[in-house]
Amino acid sequence: xxxxxxxxEWEAGNGMAHYHPDALQLNTARNALYCILQARSxxxxxxxxxxxxxxxxxxxxxxxxxxxxxxxxxxxPDLDVETIDPNALFLYTNYFGLRGDTVFNLSRAIKNLxxxxxxxxxAKPLPGVNTLYSPRKFFGVPDGAFLYAEDIDVSNLPLDISxxxxxxxxxxxxxxxxxxxxxxxxxxxxxGNLPPCRMSVLTSEILSNIDYAxxxxxxxxxxEYLAIHLDQYNEVRFDLTExxxxxxxxxxxxxxxxxxxxxxxxxFIPRLWPHLLLSDKKDSVAFLYASSMLALPIxxxxxxxxxxxxxxxxx
Length: 315
Known about the structure:
about 325 residues; alpha/beta; two-stranded parallel sheet; 10 helices; 11 strands
């Protein structure tokens, strides 16, 4: 049985242009956030309790005070917006690419809003809202980020170079997912130490050669297929709105051994985000998702037979 899910191999397609042609092109999403923090000089930032720890890196480098806010079970902010400091930055993650309605509502209520669309590559930015993207979550590229932000100039940044970060992409294509996994982890570690740069020519070229319409359609249909078969077992459900293109199918359940069972059958899924398991807030939504949510793959590589394998293992 071939591998299902996990990191991406070298991406090939028939597209002719970027999906985000008007965005600033940078090397990582965390550096995109760093550029915002440096340009705006905020002294405080609100972060959701359920968040990727890599986004803490630019905040720590910027010496900004952090205040965490809680989320409800469907990952909406659980706080009174009237109590938010109007001079602080408020970051919200478009979880799984399925919280577009929440993003819109926040844009109407909060002034200094940053939307983390790392899990929502296809979500269009809202006017005047700082928005960042991480294409590695959706495509086989070694790095790269897009940023929508007014009055930020990155033209003075050096151009990044990516050729030496492609071993995992090539090994997965030429050998197997397992053969390239250590290279994938090495690349992830490398990205944490990169200074802010403009997107490399290599990454930009790859992202200019993707059939985005086909990818979006495939992800949506795969999500709907899993939803038909697994919603009845899922402890949380997210509606697939007309313009949503999901990163994964979030499957929330209490069976602790299911993750290992899937991996043993070459169904590779990311851990989102294991550092939260060290929290003493065991009753929080962040802990619930970190401990019990499986980000089931629905990406453009998967056919119905692959989805059937996942469904069979879960059932």
